[in-house]
């Protein structure tokens, strides 16, 4: 076992040894970031049964959350700009410098920014970045007298699967949960005036049961009610299950099946690595078909399992291929964007078409058509909707002035 006592070393030898170790540490850091970047790209944390890279770094590599956060930011930066690696290895840039530069680097300015940040302290780099990339000043958060300042939540809680790592300039979260004693936690949260009004209303409604209006007890009752509602929606959890109904389709999962799978798997991802480690994620849980529906799989207890979204997608990529699943996700995004455009168009058309006597179903059909009219004004979309639904056309002044038909007639 090595001895860490250095009392026998002369001053000069001690300083030489320190310089050697610092140089080695810089080289090791550059190599570590290169490895971490490649693990990130290959998503090797998924077969190891971890839902995200941050989770892998904290729970498998046993880094603290802040150390993992900083190294992931740096690793993603060096993956995009490999010239950062020799600068780290020879000591021109430290880890904090890479993190600070990461959100500002482009192929055009990378060399210039790295040169300007070389051998600079963190404070000096922040000052130079503020000069080069000025930001709008933020007003301080206004709080009631005596309210505690917001405390940053854990990095692990922030970086859930699919979450983009935030830049250094983003504001800190306004809530935190920290242990203060055995089985006791302190919750700090900054809320809006609307939330405060809802809390006050809940305290008033519970005044007979909770005369003191203790916020912790109000919060516990509210969470009990919310959890019961969400578990019923997601897992069909109920104390009075009804008889099973016929399936509505190949992908429909009957309530009785959802309850049975939940009881068997527990509220956690069931993916297990080759080494026997089971994914510990309890977030973004989804029902996954062992044999996919597209290949004849049925929604039975034996053919269903709980998986977190990351491992559900990982299993799909292993079955159908990463390229195929990437295309499917892009198509899903496009369909979602199209639905939002149609919904927005329907909200714009609704006051005019409803006044003209059209029903909600007809308005939705007209919105699907008018959403494709890129660059058209509201008046043009209303006219197009009326031409599609009826030969009767609205008065041009009605749409131009933004006054519905009934109001225009009254005036």
Could you explain the architecture of this structure?
- The protein is mainly α.
- The protein has 17 helices and four strands.
- It has a two-stranded antiparallel ribbon.
- The C terminus is likely disordered.
Offer a quick outline of the entry:
It is built from 17 helices and four strands. The chain has helices at 11-42, 53-59, 65-80, 84-89, 95-102, 110-117, 122-132, 155-158, 193-205, 215-235, 255-265, 309-320, 322-355, 360-370, 378-389, 396-401, 405-410, and strands spanning 175-181, 184-189, 285-289, 304-308.
Helix content: 40-55%
How many β-strands, per DSSP?
Answer: 4
Largest beta sheet: strand ordering: 1-2
Percentage beta strand: 5-15%
What's the overall geometry?
extended
**Tally of helical segments:** 17
**Biggest β-sheet description:** 2 strands, antiparallel
Low-confidence stretches: 139-172, 405-411
Topology record:
Elements: H1 11-42, H2 53-59, H3 65-80, H4 84-89, H5 95-102, H6 110-117, H7 122-132, H8 155-158, E1 175-181, E2 184-189, H9 193-205, H10 215-235, H11 255-265, E3 285-289, E4 304-308, H12 309-320, H13 322-355, H14 360-370, H15 378-389, H16 396-401, H17 405-410
Antiparallel strand pairs: 1-2, 3-4
Helix pairs in contact: 1-3, 2-3, 3-5, 5-7, 12-13, 13-14, 13-15, 14-15
Key features?
411 residues, mainly alpha, two-stranded antiparallel ribbon, 4 strands, disordered C terminus
